[in-house]
Design goal:
With about 90 residues, the protein is mostly helical. The chain is built from 5 helices and no strands. The chain has a single domain, classed as lambda repressor-like DNA-binding domains (434 Repressor (Amino-terminal Domain)).
Length: about 90
């Protein structure tokens, strides 16, 4: 938005949502829903999938960043254990 000189107020009006909701999306307080992604895609000439993917990437980043250390250690331990297991193939079934 900044690169195109579009303010939060202008974008909110274009999307037909409140300024508060638009500000929340921009500042990571509100997620980009399917409805918002659809509206963004129409007015910006992008795909709705782009916005959904960006939201998913952000959600994943937030979850990883806030993962408790003990859970992170637990998951890493099993990831290492499972990575050692061979992948079944037609010649080497499980």
């Amino acid at each position: 938005m900044k690169e195109k000189g579009i303010s939060i107020t202008e974008m909110a009006a274009a999307l037909d949502i409140s300024r508060n909701q638009m500000s929340g999306v921009v500042n990571g307080r509100y997620p980009v829903t399917a409805e918002t992604a659809f509206r963004l895609s129409k007015i910006l000439g992008t795909s709705a999938g782009l916005w959904i993917k960006l939201q998913g990437d952000y959600d994943f980043w937030e979850k990883e960043r806030n993962l408790p250390r003990n859970l992170k250690n637990h998951l890493n331990r099993f990831a290492k254990e499972f990575a050692k297991r061979p992948v079944p193939t037609p010649l080497n079934p499980a």
